[in-house]
Amino acid sequence: MRASAAGSRRAKRAGPASDGGFGACYNEPAMAILKVARLGHPVLRQAAAPVPEREIHSPETQRLIDDMIETMREYNGAGLAANQVHTLEQIAVIEVLRNERYPEAPEIPLTVIINPVVTPLTEETEDGWEGCLSVPDLRGIVPRCTAVRLQALDRDGQRIDLKALDFFARVIQHETDHLNGKVYLDRMRDLSTLTHLAEWSKYWLGAGEPED
Ligand code: NI
Predict the structure, then answer these.
(1) Fewer beta carbons under 10 A from the terminal one: N or C of the chain?
(2) Counts for the chain of helices (H) and strands (E), in that order
């Protein structure tokens, strides 16, 4: 979740590093910033598959999670779903740190969710601004359910079962939508609020709570 330009290419996954023929070298590669799929890439419109529990501890899955966390932080996202990094597995990461630009925005500690099931706990919805790393430079007002139950696994395979409210509930809905092939634009009731970031700052700031 959140708008920003996407950059670096996806790095190759773990494997022995070549040292040009001077003997075997098995350096553990550093975490990588992954390339983020942008709107129009079919991967954003496909449903991700559940991760088999036995695969959660695999080096490949753990590495993917690490890379997703690093990518989310690099682009100042509030969350990132695996579809956005070209991987159709039901994994999303969420984190909101205190931001001086938006002191009102609530903090969300780093949360890794695998195979999430989201159940609305109320019919009440609230309008709020959203952006998305896959829809760079745009923002729009999206109605979201204000309270949801989240059932998922964490990166250790432990069960998560929590009630999330307001902004945390919004981010959970945004990220799990990605895992189902949806983007926030699909949830907007009125596309007239869709705005570029510069125009958002100029015309809309103060018209609603900034969400990131
Ligand atoms: Ni997004």
Answers:
(1) C
(2) 3, 8
Catalytic: 126? no
Mean pLDDT value across residues 136-158: 97
Report the CATH number that the domain containing residue 117 is assigned in CATH: 3.90.45.10
- Encode pLDDT of 119-132 as tens digits: 999 999 999 999 99
The answer to whether residue 101 sits within a structural domain is yes
- pTM of the full structure: 0.83
What's the half-sphere exposure (Cβ side, CA atoms, 13 Å) at 33? 12
34 inside domain: no
Domain around 111:
42-204
Measured in angstroms, how far is the CA atom of residue 101 from the centroid of ligand 1? 20
Task: Tell me how far the alpha carbon of residue 57 lies from the centroid of ligand 1, in angstroms.
Answer: 25
